Amino acid sequence: MYNLSVRVEIFREDDIYVALSPELNVSSFGETIEEAKSAIKEAIEAFIEECEVMGTLDDILEEAGFTKNLDMWISRSPIAEERIALAM
Q1: 12 CB contacts (<8 Å, ≥6 apart)?
Q2: Which one of 8, 72, 75, 81 is at 20 to 30 Å from 41 when CA atoms are compared?
Q3: Res 16: pLDDT
Q4: What architecture is domain 3-74?
Q5: Per-residue model confidence (pLDDT) at position 71
Q6: In this structure, are residues 66 and 72 in contact, taking their beta carbons and an 8 Å threshold?
Q7: 31-69 pLDDT, tens per residue?
Q8: Alpha carbon distance 86, 13 (integer Å)
């Protein structure tokens, strides 16, 4: 059993909502924000289950920047976030 804290970003693309877990590189979508949240949760759970079967989950989480605190894997958090405009 794994306890994870995963960051999810949701974007609107045309008439659907796309949900992305950047650290795990897992995405899904839905017609509403709630559907996108539910779909990304299912996609992440399937990804985790498959990694467990292959015996690679701990390695993948560590490579993705997660740290283990007792029995909980926590994704890294930025200390700052900015948007930088480039004119090229």
Answers
A1: 18
A2: 81
A3: 97
A4: 2-Layer Sandwich (3.30)
A5: 82
A6: no
A7: 999 999 999 999 999 999 999 999 999 999 999 999 988
A8: 23
Please state the separation of Cα 40 from the chain's center in Å: 8
> Domain map of the chain by residue range?
3-74
Residue 10 sits at φ, ψ, to 5 deg, of -125, 130
Long-range (24+ apart) CB contacts under 8 A made by 19-25 are: 23/64, 23/65, 23/66, 23/75, 23/76, 24/60, 24/64
Determine the length of the chain: 88
Closest by Cα among 16, 24, 31, 13 to 62: 24
In DSSP notation, 18-86 reads EEEETTTTEEEEESSHHHHHHHHHHHHHHHHHHHHHHT-HHHHHHHTT-EEETTEEE----S-------
